[in-house]
Design a protein that fits this description.
heterodimer, A: alpha/beta, 4-stranded antiparallel sheet, B: alpha/beta, binds adenosine-5'-triphosphate, binds iron/sulfur cluster, binds magnesium ion
Chain lengths: ~350, ~350
Amino acid sequence: MSDQALLSIRDLVVEFPTRRGLLRPVDHVSFDIHRGEILGVVGESGAGKSMTGSAVVGLIDRPGRIAAGEVLLDGEPIHRLSEDAMRRVRGRKIGMVFQDPLTSLNPLLRIGDQLVETIRTHLSVGEAEARKRAIAALDEVGIPAAARRIDSYPHEFSGGMRQRVVIALALAAEPELVIADEPTTALDVSVQAQIIALLKRLCRERGAAVMLITHDMGVIAEATDRVAVLYAGRLAEIGPTPDVLSRPKHPYTVGLMKSTPSTLGEGGRLHQIPGSMPGLRAIPNGCAFHPRCTKRFERCDKERPDPIPVGAGQIACWLYDPAEGDRHAAARAELAGAGSDPAAIATAEAGEGAA
Amino acid sequence: MSDLMTEDLAQAAADDVLVSARGLGRVFDVSKPWLNRVIEREERVFLTAAEDVTFDIRRGKTFALVGESGSGKSTIARMIVGLLRPTSGAVTVDGVDLFRSGDIAGQTALRRRIQMIFQDPYASLNPRWRVGDIIAEPIRAFQLEQDAKAVRARVGELLEQVGLAAIDGIKYPHEFSGGQRQRICIARALASKPEFIVCDEPTSALDVSVQSQVLNLMRDLQRELNLTYLLISHDLSVVRYMADDIGVLYLGRLVETAPREQLYEAPRHPYTHMLLDAAPRLDAFGRTAESVVGEIPDPIDRPSGCHFHPRCPHANDRCKTEAPARLVLGPGRTAACHGVEEGRL
Ligand SMILES: Nc1ncnc2c1ncn2[C@@H]1O[C@H](COP(=O)(O)OP(=O)(O)OP(=O)(O)O)[C@@H](O)[C@H]1O
Ligand SMILES: Nc1ncnc2c1ncn2[C@@H]1O[C@H](COP(=O)(O)OP(=O)(O)OP(=O)(O)O)[C@@H](O)[C@H]1O
Ligand code: SF4
Ligand code: SF4
Ligand SMILES: [Mg+2]
Ligand SMILES: [Mg+2]
């Protein structure tokens, strides 16, 4: 793995000017993804996960725009490329799996034709070879009898099958960076495992890098090397996956882990973090999480915490500010003890040792 | 067969069943275009997405359908709400046959009482309509509120019920995140005050915290309004949380139905065993679903006999040739497996 990250996002800000003020769905977010690495991105609905992915590939709906910061691919800034230049980067260098599988498929074209077209746009291969690759791509994402079903239309496929076609389309031109937005949401565990294995293989064998946006902690645990947690457009915590999952440090991450449905018993209610994530029009001052945080103190509603290095990762929370000294030791210990069950820690640690 | 059917239906009425599927089947013609077929000398090709599916949904309860991708869940859901005509079999809702010609009045009256939340939230929202109008449409169509002001108030209430703000009604669907759009679909489904809602993967696009809000909300509404749900989900922890009764599908056939506890604690069909073993659990971080063995087979060329036999550790010669019949094992409990019938499972 070379030192230079394949994707580097620096202080990214995405803004939407509206009649009633400026909205910031992405607010000073920074992270890197290296070759051969899968970075998971998690966070509540509306946290800015998809918007971050769209910003990287230059597909933010108007009037939204990148207002500050930069996006570097292999060290080269790509956030100011013309639409034409960006279109070439997309597909060839960056493959994008959108959250909504249907919008990426043309309902009027056969699935095979869509794949062949993508392959031939980006790679110099003939029609027959492209068709062969298209069948192989469908096979790889687990479409049974791919050769026979390649001439189907999207509506003839089930929801999960369409989702897999979209993945095949994104990977068809062998991109270096794959941004996959909820790629496995409609898939059952066996197909999901197959997709995760495919993404891991891309990283291992081709040195690709993957940004995997998902709300499924099981997928995060199985697939990713590191995880970034977003809250209200800001980075709350980022670090190696086992740390973030079983020893979360940010009060928000701790709450998020506790509401994972694998902990639910039948009949009982699911744990909910009190309150809900603020809308973009009402981001609280200081730490955006403070109205919901049980650990907040005087500083939290006045000053905004930036991510600072803690252990192998980064946390944006004043509890971990060295300037605060030891006065929050008890709060930190409580966070460290909460929400993580021993079995999960044990397996995560075993995984860490093996990695 | 017809004797069994009447008996069955009598039993169904006794259990206060709202929805019954009887011998439901759907075949799709997936042949290549006629000219290609002639040139390439190919036969017509058919795909059986659902075959002889029989189950009941009790009033005020949740029936969940589970099964692998492509097993026929959405196909069955679309037939149950009357959107897709079955090739064989029947669906009755509150005694009205959804597809029998001649009962147009009954079928129309049913329309308001049945709603569906689709698997593709984006595709089902009109991008040119404001969210408030999308949600108001069924309220206006069925004249559920008196005037424009009451409609607006009701829309705001629905938006808040699903965790959005009343003011969000003035925005367009593309201004929302994936999970927010899913909640808009739920609000629209609730708008016509339905009694029966088919939810096709209602929470799969939602993050855990919103998922728990939506699931808790669906349960609260069920209790308050005595709603009946058909829930489709590949997430067995969601199903366990929500369902009263569960049906397990494999390649278009219902292989087992059972009340929730019985299914999770004492599954009978070997495929149900396999599904439950593969489900991610809290203590299973870092594990992949290795316990699911074998390829997902081709629905066009389904294996003979019991479709599951190539992956089943208990398959014998009979399993390879003879399709297992549906055995009634108890109230709401059925299994289609030779091993169970022969007493070896
Ligand atoms: N075109 C737009 N105009 C205005 N606001 C938008 C637009 N698209 C998205 N937003 C807002 O930006 C915020 C971030 O949206 P984003 O789609 O990135 O969320 P997400 O984290 O991907 O959520 P989900 O898990 O629900 O997909 C949300 O509050 C959303 O309402
Ligand atoms: N209109 C159609 N024409 C041809 N084949 C179809 C059509 N609709 C569905 N099928 C096929 O029927 C099978 C079952 O599809 P269905 O959508 O019911 O699956 P599902 O269980 O909902 O799967 P998923 O979990 O992936 O959504 C699939 O093989 C699909 O390709
Ligand atoms: S900065 Fe303060 S309010 Fe924010 S998460 Fe940390 S303790 Fe809570
Ligand atoms: S019928 Fe035979 S092959 Fe099918 S599940 Fe039962 S034992 Fe296995
Ligand atoms: Mg999203
Ligand atoms: Mg489906």
